[in-house]
Amino acid sequence: MREYFKMTFKINSMHTFVISLSHEILRRKAILKKLNDIPGNFEFFDAIDGKKINLLRHIDYQGLKRRLCYGKDLTRGELGCFFSHRAVLEKIVKNKVAIALVLEDDVVLSGDFIIVLDRLINCSYPWEAVRFLGKPKITKMMQKKVIRLYNDYYLTRLATSPGGAYAYLISYVGAKKLLKSMKKVSCPNDTIMGLPWKSGVDVLTVQPGIATWDKKFESAIGNQRYEKNKLTGWERIVYPVTRMLFKLREGVLKKVFYFFGYLKDKKLNNE
Description:
This protein is of the alpha/beta class and 271 residues long. Helices cover 38% and strands 19% of the residues. It starts with 14 loop residues before the first strand and ends with a helix.
């Protein structure tokens, strides 16, 4: 397997955004201790509080689409999380940040995070976005090693789309593409990142995982997965059909994009 190590970006040019509610002082103090060794520029980005959002009346929320595909609405917390990440992407694009590290304030970084990050930033593989996912179940998912970064850490292509947006690296080009797919919301931002046919972004990951979340902290911006309201009326009647068609479409697209991603990686490795 070929290794790509031609200097493209220096890690000191990276800008780090930590998404955190402005009143979460303890969280901010806790993560500051973890980020002392992160190079480049750093800033806290004030998260949007989902508790203050009227979910069903928000102009950007596609509630009907959400319910017909997933059977339940998003929570206000998930909407706040979505808008917070969207606002960060808007800032990256507006300021033309070449490369950004986006973290949520409950993230936990491994001891090898900096060196793996440095190898990733300085490799010549044309990545657009890389999610750092540390859930144990990911190791059991179908995946393809793309390039070796450091020791046993590989830039990796997953055949499925697990959740998680607590830590990711994104380029200006990747942010611009992802932002276009987030004008409206019918699913969480981490779900969109795992769906290249929706986002237009070829999102990879690093395995073994180099980041996870702190279980001592309950997520402040998206802790509840669904609203409690359930389907009623005609939505409840048609849902089994719309859900089946949705899953069928997503399953086919997932396989197609994984296959073309595999061909892309193979071509680059043979050059």
